[in-house]
Structure formats: C-alpha cells, structure tokens
Amino acid sequence: MTDRNCDDSRFPLCLELEQSKVPDSLNPRTPECDDLGDLTDSTGILYSPGWPGTYPVSTDCSWNIYIADADYIRISFISMDLELCCDNLKIWEGSGNYGIFIDTYTGHHNEYPDILLHGPYVYLEFHSDSSGQYDGFELHWRSEPADTACVEEYSSTDGQIYSPGFPKDYIHNLDCQYIITTDEDKILRLTTSFFETDGDKDYLKVYDGGDSSAPLLVTLSGTQHNVPVISSNGNQLFITFNTDDDFSAGGFDMSWTSEAACPVPFITVGSMCLRFLFGDFTFGQATVSCVSEGGTMATIRNAEQLRDFFLYVNQL
C-alpha cells in the first residue's frame, strides 16, 4: 500500500508502506488446535491437541472459558506431561492474555492443586516448540458459586490443606471454610509448614469443634514462622480463611494427623492430658488428690505448653 504518489514532486519526502501478511509462526492458533471458540458450559474437559496421543510440534492453541453467571471457576488438573524445557500451558484470570497472569505449567505432574479463579472468564494458551512430543494434558473446569467454592470437608485421619491456588498467591475476597473430622476416639494435631497473608487484613482462624460456635483456638495472620502445633480437644477442627480485595500473599500449607484422645476424665490441652481440680489445697494435698485420680502434678515445661494451658484456662 502506498500512502502518497511518490512520483509527485510536490512531496519532498515520500513513504511507501507495504502491507505484508503476518507470519504463520506468530498466529496464536495453528491448524492442529480444535476450533472451540468460547467454552461456555458450566463444566467441561479440555485436552491438549492430539489427545490421547502425543501433541504435535510447533503448535500454539488458545481457549477462552466464559461462564456468564460464574462467581468462581475451578481448574482441576487430571494429568500433565509436557516437555519441561520448551512446551507449556499458561493460564490467566480474565478474557485474553492481558488479564491477571496465574502461572506457567510444564513438565510431568499429576498432583497440581486445583486453581480457583474469579469468573466469568479464564484464558489458556498452549505452546509446543519444534522438537519433542509428549502426552500433553487433561484438565477439568467447573463453575462454582461463591458460597460453596471454598468449602471443604475432610474425614481422614491425616491429610493436607492448602490455601486456594497454593503455592501461588491466593485470590481476593475469599470466604473459605474447612471441616476436618477424624475417628471419634482420636484428636487432631494441625501442623503449619508455611503461612503468609497480607498483614492482619487476611486471616485464618481455627476452632476446636465442627463450626464457628466452638472455642477459638488461634487466629493467624501476616507472616508466621514456627507456628506451634494446634491440637483439638475432640475429633473435629473448623478452619476459616478470609481475604479482602486488597493485596494477596503466599497463603498457607498445613497438615493434620490423628492421635489417641486422652483417657476419661482427662482432657487434651495442647500436647498434654490434664484434669483440673479446683479447691483450696496445700501442695501435699494437691499431690495426693492427683495421685488418687490416676495422675501426677502437672509441670509446665516449655513456652508451648504454657500457651496451651492459658488458652484452655481462658475458655473456662
């Protein structure tokens, strides 16, 4: 295309702009991709091109998940086998790759945690280079309403619990609830491997029971190192995680185990089995009373036991 008549002497400077075709290598979609357009079903399955065979080389695919009434969209990875160096799947929250970039996924993984994203759009791009063909990926998506998107119940004797999207930063405006239940004759020990939130604006609470009416054991916020083990007195823990619409952070990584409960009439207080006898006792009388009840005088041996003791006494 010529913008002016370059033979015209009235113009001392003449520019010729020649329109050229965009190279195929820069096209965001190649013929091997399924022409799916927007994926608008509330649930669905997405495969790499060529599935269940290996994906082709030199391929660029993109998909836009659009669910009009979705508060959240959950992405669950079923399998992933991509060339680690050069092939990948990228995910954005929003429509197109100008939204909020979430992560790049590559290599061989079967245990990526679910990704919980704000609706109504999620955008995905798959790229393979000119060498190496692997099995590709399979992922599921589903729409989730705000009141159930972050609610989980666990009924095993041990396990792990993560903030949504961990190890990536959690998203805004979460109202998560987790209920952990073990066998009736056991108690729960909750260990924190990582904890980081945006100051005290985003926080996690642990309750000693099955809902928020149970005694509050601890509130965690900010960056926490060496969080003491949190122990239940019964066979349930109720955990809430709340975030605002400001900054986010790394979230949390916790695990729980189950142990035999203290024998009746003793109760679990942190790592101790205690029974409280109230009255006016001399030390000798108190010792005799403890022995007659099948125990010994309790000794607070460290800061963790002291913390657990006062947490319990404050609830009496």
Automatic annotation (TrEMBL):
Among PROSITE patterns, the record links this protein to:
CUB
Record CDD domains? CUB
Give all residue intervals belonging to the CUB domain.
33-144, 150-259
* Pfam families, A to Z: CUB
Q: Which InterPro entries match?
A: CTDL_fold (IPR016187), CUB_dom (IPR000859), Sperma_CUB_dom_sf (IPR035914)
Keywords annotated in UniProt: Disulfide bond, Repeat
For this protein, the record's PANTHER family field holds: OVOCHYMASE-RELATED
Q: What protein am I looking at?
A: CUB domain-containing protein
- What organism does the UniProt record list as the source? Meganyctiphanes norvegica
